[in-house]
């Protein structure tokens, strides 16, 4: 039998076994069961009734969180020199083109988000195996391939995140920090859930949003009633 740590046991004692909480209840409870000494990241996990192996059931998108993620996102913009000034002013952490392509050749991927323009995309094709698995390949559907580079940088810095269903049919995404208020956690979580719900593929049959859970760094997961996520 696995022995529970003192903090883990204390967290579980605050939770009702088998209960599915409302989103608002979970947004308050997550703060109570988070015991880390650092500002823990809060995640939302959503199991969908889709088959990601089929192109017509792929779920991916982007959303700007009302209260941001609480994280410092490192943004790389791949662009020509004439656009460098405006994207630096918009808040990009790294800006360039050829020098970063050379770094990709060496396996470098030290960025959280990569943004580029349509004319640069052909140069990134050969880096699909490097950037794709890490979720770094720019994509028009998530707004990371755009002619408005400065605008995309500002949105990303303000809390825009991308999400994509994995091969197991689950969307994993960050919704904030444990230092956020319950109201801010709720607002961010609701924004993501509503966005995922709007992206339900026409080919998906049966229950779409099967399970929803919220957790923080090293905390137990809180099961959320996916049928009534807006309830107080």
Task: Summarize it.
By secondary structure, this protein is α/β, with parallel strands linked by helices.
Q: Runs with pLDDT <50, length 5+?
A: none
Residues in helices, as a percent range? 25-40%
CATH superfamily of the largest domain: Ribosomal protein L1/L10, rRNA-binding domain
Question: Proportion of β residues?
Answer: 15-25%
Number of helices: 7
CATH architecture of the largest domain: 2-Layer Sandwich
Mean pLDDT: 92
- CATH class of the largest domain equals Alpha Beta
The oligomeric state of the chains shown is: single chain
CATH fold-level assignment of the largest domain? Ribulose 1,5 Bisphosphate Carboxylase/Oxygenase
List keywords for this structure.
Ribulose 1,5 Bisphosphate Carboxylase/Oxygenase; 3-stranded parallel β-sheet; 7 helices; 232 residues; single chain; alpha/beta; 2 domains; 4-stranded antiparallel β-sheet; Rossmann fold
Folded structure, characterized:
With 232 residues, the chain is of the alpha/beta class. It has two domains: 17-68 and 161-224, Ribosomal protein L1/L10, rRNA-binding domain (Ribulose 1,5 Bisphosphate Carboxylase/Oxygenase, 2-Layer Sandwich); 75-157, Ribosomal protein L1/L10, domain II (Rossmann fold, 3-Layer(aba) Sandwich), CATH 3.40.50.790. The protein is built from seven helices and nine strands; from the N terminus they run H-H-E-E-E-H-E-H-E-H-H-E-E-H-E-E. It has helices at residues 6-13, 23-32, 84-90, 98-105, 128-131, 149-158, 182-198; strands at 41-48, 60-64, 75-78, 94-96, 113-116, 160-164, 170-177, 209-216, 222-224. The protein has a four-stranded antiparallel β-sheet with strand order 7-1-8-9, with helices on one face. Helix 2 crosses helix 7 (182-198) and helix 3 runs parallel beside helix 6. The longest helix is centred in the C-terminal third of the chain and has 17 residues, at 182-198.
């Amino acid at each position: 039998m696995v022995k529970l740590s003192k903090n883990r046991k204390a967290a579980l004692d605050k939770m009702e076994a088998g209960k599915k909480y409302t989103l608002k209840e979970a947004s308050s409870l997550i703060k109570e069961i988070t015991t880390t000494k650092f500002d823990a990241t809060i995640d939302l996990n959503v199991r969908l009734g889709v088959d990601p192996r089929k192109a017509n059931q792929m779920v991916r998108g982007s959303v700007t969180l009302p209260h941001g993620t609480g994280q410092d996102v490192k943004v790389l913009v791949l662009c020509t020199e004439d656009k460098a000034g405006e994207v630096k002013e918009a808040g990009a952490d790294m800006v360039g083109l050829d020098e970063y392509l050379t770094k990709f050749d060496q396996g470098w991927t030290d960025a959280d988000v990569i943004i580029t323009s349509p004319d640069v995309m052909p140069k990134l094709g050969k880096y699909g195996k490097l950037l794709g698995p890490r979720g770094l390949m720019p994509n028009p559907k998530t707004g990371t391939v755009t002619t408005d580079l400065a605008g995309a940088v500002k949105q990303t810095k303000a809390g825009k995140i991308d999400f994509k269903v994995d091969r197991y049919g689950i969307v994993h995404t960050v919704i904030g920090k444990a230092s956020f208020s319950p109201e801010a956690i709720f607002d961010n979580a609701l924004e993501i859930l509503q966005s995922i719900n709007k992206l339900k593929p026409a080919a998906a049959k049966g229950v779409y949003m099967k399970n929803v859970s919220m957790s923080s760094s090293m905390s137990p997961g809180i099961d959320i009633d996916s049928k009534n996520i807006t309830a107080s």
